[in-house]
Structures are given as structure tokens and as C-alpha cells.
Amino acid sequence: MERVFSRRWRSPKVRMNTRDTRSAQADFRAGAPDGSTESLPALSVLGTPLLVSSYSKLTADLQGLSRAARPFAVDFTNTHIVTMRRHDPGFRQLTGRFDFFVPDGMPLIWCLNRQGAKLRDRVYGPKFLRHCVLASPAPFTHYFLGGSDACAAALRAFLLRENPAVQIVGSRNGYFHAKDEPEILAEINRLSPDFIWIGLGTPKQQAWIDKYKSQIQRGLLLAVGFAFDVNAGMKPDAPLWMQRWGLTWLFRLGSEPRRLGPRYFRYNLLFLAYLLRDGLRGRAWATVGTAGGVHRNAMSDERSDA
Question: Whole-model pTM?
Fold first, then answer.
């Protein structure tokens, strides 16, 4: 599926000091259920605004937003996605409907900490799914879209074994056709889950959210990649020491070299090249004040790079 979509794109509590906040912080503002404004700090890396958060803080923020009468889209973003958003105008436009980008990779954390974020860890999609679901039992509700039927069954069994109070209202495997999508959309709106976990892989999951976000009545749409497979025990995850050193990609490359090798070779090099070029131009951490502003800034950067 990823090859098909790639062809299409060608056409603990975070503390920041006052100075860092004034100079480098961008605010996402999203409508809270009571009509007030929820402000979540973000910092830019290659034009993508990344949330400055943690597992517990993000869980609490999303629990609050889940009660809103509108949908929110959340992407768990690694260097591959950040680089695609910078390099590929089609993918950047595709992800324009996302409300939040969560730093999923350690290299992004190192970039954020260079700006004063003082983060101790990334917010890794597979770990966050486990943390958030187990910390969000009933009355919160969950829906899973992606993986195989066997993966969905194993994931459900694992989560309910860890916390029997977790309320999973529905799931659908990721091997559906376009003709099935209206039925999936209708089911999601009928069940009205608070958390809609989407594990279709990049860029298919972003494309699905872009296409259907405006038709989903409410809930959090969370693009979490291969988090289903890891938590269901279908695929191994990198050892903790490799994760801490930012080597999850190397572990995955060893597991799936043919599929991931070309992607990692290209986008890892592009990430470093863009970071170096922006640094030499004195705009490595250029930020603007809103999500839309960051998107426009990235587009202007791309035009000037061309």
C-alpha cells in the first residue's frame, strides 16, 4: 500500500523558561468542550510544529479535548514524516487538516531540546497507545481501525487484560476497499467513540484522516502507525537502550530491510540535509504563531529552496 501512495505524492512536566517561551514557542489553540481555549505549546522542526508534551500530559490534554463537539486529528510524527512534510508539497497539503503533531522520534526531541524544551523523552506512538488507553477507561470509549483481524483480537485481549475497565466499542481491520469506507464512516459516527486509533501506516493513515475528518462528528483521530502490531505482539519493538539512543529505525530496518531500507536511506539523509541547510541560513528553528502560520512558513521555505 505504501508504494501506491508514494507514487501519488510525487505530482514529567515540561518546563520552559520565559525567554525560551517568548522566542521559540508556538501555540496551538483548540476549542475545549466548554467553549474556552485550550493552549498547547509547540516548537517547529523543519516547518512542522511539534507539541512539547509527555505521555501523562498529552493523555490528560486529549481526554479533555475528547469531549468537544468536533473532531481533532493527531499525528505521531517521526523524522520521516517531518521530512516528507518539508520535501513533498502533496504530503504537506495532505496533513494540513491535522491539529497536532506529536514528536515520536528521539532526533526530534534532540532538536526540540536545542530550543529549550527540556524534554526527557519522546512520546512514542506504540507506548502512548498503551499508556493512554489504559489510563482512559470507561466512560471514555475507543475504536481501532487498522491491522489484521488477528491483530485487533490480540490488541483487544491485551488491553482488557491490563485494565478490564477499558471500553472498546468497535474495530475494523485495515484491509478494506474504497467501497467499504462509507460503512466504516457510518459506524464511527454511530458509535461516537472518544478515541479513534488509526494504524494504517504512512501515508495511508494521513490520507484517510484528510479525506474523512470533516465527515466525522466528534472524537480524536490518532495516527499511530505500527502501534497496533507492537502492542498486539505481532511485531517486535526495539530494545529500550536502542530507543533511548534514537535507534528504533535501525532495529526496524533490520526487521524489514527490503521495505524500509529505501525509505530510511532517502529520508534520513534528507532530514539531515534540510537541518544543515536551515542551520547555515540561520533559520533552523524558525517558528510562527499558529498552526496555519507554520504551514504557510513551510510552504514559503519550500518555494525559496526550489
Answer: 0.82
Is there a contact between 185 and 209 (Cβ–Cβ < 8 Å)?
no
Q: How far is CA 273 from CA 81, 86, 101, 185, 249, in A?
A: 15, 11, 21, 40, 18
Could you state, in order of their start, the residue ranges of all structural domains in the chain? 2-305
Distance CA 234, CA 192 (A): 28
Select from 271, 256, 247, 258 the least CA-distant residue to 226: 256
Render pLDDT for 217-264 as a digit per residue (tens, 0 to 9).
Answer: 999 999 999 999 999 999 999 999 999 999 998 998 998 898 889 988
Query: Which cell goes with 220?
Result: 480524536
**What's the rounded Cα separation, in Å, for the pair 49 and 240?**
26
Which residues does 259 contact at the CB level (< 8 Å), separation at least 6?
Answer: 2
pLDDT (tens digit per residue) in 107-130: 999 999 999 999 999 999 999 999
Rg (alpha carbons) of the chain, rounded to whole number: 18
* Coil, helix or strand at residue 290: coil
Strand-pair category, 219-223 with 26-31: unpaired
* CA 40/CA 51 separation, integer angstroms: 7
Other C-beta atoms within 10 Å of 12: how many? 11
CB 213 within 8 A of CB 131: no
- Beta carbons within 10 angstroms of residue 242's beta carbon: 16
β-strand partners of 41: 27
Neighbours of 239 (CB within 10 A): 12
Helix (H, G, I), strand (E, B) or coil at 214: helix
CA–CA separation, 107 vs 80, rounded Å?
11
E strands present in the chain: 26-31, 37-45, 48-51, 71-77, 100-103, 141-146, 167-172, 195-199, 219-223
Could you give the CA distance from residue 18 to residue 84 in angstroms, rounded to a whole number? Answer: 32
